[in-house]
Design goal:
The structure is a single chain. With 433 residues, the protein is α/β, with parallel strands linked by helices. It has three domains: 65 residues, Archaeosine Trna-guanine Transglycosylase, Chain: A, domain 4 (Roll); 102 residues, RNA methyltransferase domain (HRMD) like (Transcription Regulator spoIIAA); 193 residues, 3-Layer(aba) Sandwich (Rossmann fold). It is 25% helix and 31% strand. Helix 8 packs parallel to helix 9 and helix 9 crosses helix 10. GO terms for molecular function: methyltransferase activity; RNA binding. InterPro entries: Methyltranfer_dom, PUA, PUA-like_sf, PUA_sf, RlmI-like_PUA, SAM-dependent_MTases_sf. It comes from Alicyclobacillus mengziensis. Keywords: Cytoplasm, Methyltransferase, RNA-binding, rRNA processing, S-adenosyl-L-methionine, Transferase.
C-alpha cells in the first residue's frame, strides 16, 4: 500500500492550485513505509487524496507531483505519453522547429526532467532523486517518441548534489557528436553538447532574440550621417562611390544599421541576430575565450563575421572603460548569467545588475535602446524593473518601455508557480533628461 504524506492544516493550498512541490515545512506526518525516491500519496490534513509524488526526505522539496490520478502506473507508457504531450505542445506553438526545449520539467508535468532537442540529438538532465529512479523508462520513452540519433546525459549540474545525486556526463544512447548545428530564426548555430553551458544552448531567449530586429536598422535619418562610409552633401543625401544613395521607395537617405555593443555575448546568439538583422557593427564581449571561439564560428557560419569584433574581457571592466573613453552606441545588449543563485546572494546581485545597467545606459546614444535581461529567479520582475529605474535615475535618463517578456513558448509556466518565472527581458528606448 502506498504511503501517505499528510499536509498541515494551516498551509497555503498550493498543491490544489497546481503547484508541483511539497516542502518539508508543509508536512504534518508520514503514514506507511516508503524508501527515498519512492512514490507517496499526498493527502490533506483530513486524508483527502491530492496527488501522487516522488519522495525524497533529504531534500527541502520533500515531494514532487507526478500525477493527480490515484491509480497512475509509472511505466514506459506513462513517460512516453507525457513526452508526446510536451512535444505536441511545442509543435502547436512554435511550429515545425527541429531544435528547442522539448521537455521542461515541472511545467511539462515531469518534475526534474529537462530534455533539449538539437535536431536529431537529445541532451538530457535529470535533476531530482525521484526522476532518477525512472531513468530506464525515460530513456526508452525518448527513443520511442523522437527516434534520435543519440542521447547525451548532462547530469553535471550542482542541484543534483542537493538531491543526493552524483554528477556525471555520458552518451546515454546512440551516437552523439561533440558539436551539432541547429537553426534558430533562420540562422545557424553550432552547439557544444558535451562541454557547453547547461545542456549546450539557451533556447529560452529565442523569441527575445527575434524581438531586437526593429532596433538594428533605421538609423540614417537621425544622428550623425557622417558615420556612414560615404560623403554627406548639403542636401543630406549620402554619396557612396560618387552615387547618391536613397531609399527607392520613399526617396529618403539610405538608412544605416545600428552600432551595437553586447556584453556577456557567450556563444554569440544575440550578436549574430543583431548582425543578420542589419546592424552595421557589433562589439561582442565575454570573459570566456572558449565561448568566444564558438561565437566566432557562429558568426562565420552566418557570414557576418566581417561586422563583428569579439573581445575577451570582464564586462564590468569593459563597460567602465568604454564610458571613460566617451564611446557610445545605438543599442546596448546586456544578457548576463544569473547573479543571484540563492536568496542570500540577492543583495550583491542587485548591486551587480544596477552597475551594468547604469554603465550600459550611459553608453546609449540619445534615442537609442537598452536591451537588458536577468535570469536570476530570486530577482523578481518588479525588483528588476526597480533596478533599471534606479540606474536610469543615476544616469539622468528617461526610459520608454518598448518590450517586456520572459522565456519563450518552449519554456511554459504553470499558473501560480512563481519558481518557473525566472527570465526577465526588456527593451527600453533611452532619452536624456
Amino acid at each position: 500500500m502506498t504511503a501517505k504524506l499528510f499536509l498541515n492544516r494551516n498551509r497555503k493550498r498550493r498543491i490544489e492550485t497546481g503547484h508541483p512541490w511539497v516542502y518539508q515545512s508543509e508536512v504534518n506526518r508520514l503514514e506507511g513505509r516508503v524508501e527515498a525516491n519512492g512514490i507517496v500519496q499526498i493527502v490533506n490534513h483530513q486524508g483527502v487524496f491530492l496527488a501522487l509524488a516522488t519522495y525524497n526526505p533529504e531534500s527541502q522539496i520533500i515531494a514532487r507531483v507526478l500525477s493527480y490520478r490515484a491509480d497512475e502506473v509509472f511505466d514506459e507508457r506513462f513517460f512516453a505519453r507525457r513526452i508526446e504531450e510536451a512535444w505536441a505542445y511545442r509543435q502547436r506553438f512554435i511550429g515545425e522547429i527541429e531544435s528547442c526545449r522539448a521537455v521542461y520539467g515541472e511545467a511539462d508535468f515531469l518534475p526534474g526532467l529537462i530534455v533539449d532537442k538539437y535536431s536529431d540529438v537529445l541532451s538530457v538532465q535529470i535533476l531530482s532523486l525521484g526522476m532518477e529512479r525512472f531513468k530506464s523508462q525515460i530513456r526508452a520513452a525518448l527513443m520511442t517518441v523522437f527516434q534520435p540519433r543519440g542521447i547525451f546525459l548532462r547530469n553535471d549540474v550542482q542541484v543534483r548534489r542537493l538531491e543526493g545525486l552524483p554528477l556525471e556526463t555520458s552518451v546515454w544512447a546512440g551516437n552523439v557528436p561533440e558539436k551539432v548545428e541547429i537553426e534558430e530564426n533562420g540562422m545557424r548555430f553550432v552547439v557544444d553538447i558535451w562541454e557547453g553551458q547547461k545542456t549546450g544552448y539557451f533556447f529560452d531567449q529565442r523569441e527575445n532574440r527575434a524581438a531586437i530586429a526593429p532596433l538594428m536598422t533605421g538609423w540614417g535619418n537621425s544622428g550623425d550621417h557622417r558615420s556612414l562610409d560615404g560623403h554627406v552633401g548639403m542636401d543630406g543625401i549620402v554619396a557612396i562611390n560618387g552615387q547618391a544613395a536613397t531609399d527607392r521607395h520613399q526617396h529618403q537617405p539610405l538608412e544605416r544599421g545600428a552600432d551595437v555593443l553586447e556584453c556577456f555575448c557567450h556563444t554569440g546568439a544575440f550578436t549574430v541576430h543583431a548582425a543578420k538583422y542589419g546592424a552595421r557593427h557589433v562589439t561582442a564581449v565575454d570573459i570566456s575565450l572558449p565561448a568566444i571561439e564558438v561565437a566566432k564560428e557562429n558568426a562565420r557560419l552566418n557570414e557576418v563575421d566581417d561586422r563583428i569584433d569579439f573581445i575577451e574581457a570582464n564586462a564590468f571592466d569593459f563597460l567602465r572603460e568604454e564610458e571613460a573613453s566617451g564611446r557610445n552606441y545605438d543599442v546596448v545588449i546586456l544578457d548576463p548569467p544569473a547573479f543571484a543563485k540563492s536568496r542570500r546572494a540577492l543583495e550583491g546581485a542587485i548591486r551587480g545588475y544596477k552597475e551594468i545597467n547604469l554603465r550600459g545606459l550611459k553608453l546609449v546614444r540619445d534615442g537609442g535602446f537598452l536591451v537588458t535581461a536577468s535570469c536570476s529567479y530570486h530577482l523578481r520582475p518588479d525588483m528588476f524593473k526597480d533596478v533599471i529605474l534606479d540606474a536610469a535615475f543615476d544616469a539622468h535618463k528617461v526610459l520608454r518601455l518598448v518590450h517586456w517578456s520572459g522565456a519563450g513558448k518552449d519554456h511554459p509556466e504553470i499558473a501560480g508557480v512563481d519558481e518557473g518565472h525566472y527570465l526577465k527581458f526588456a527593451i527600453y528606448e533611452v532619452r536624456s533628461r
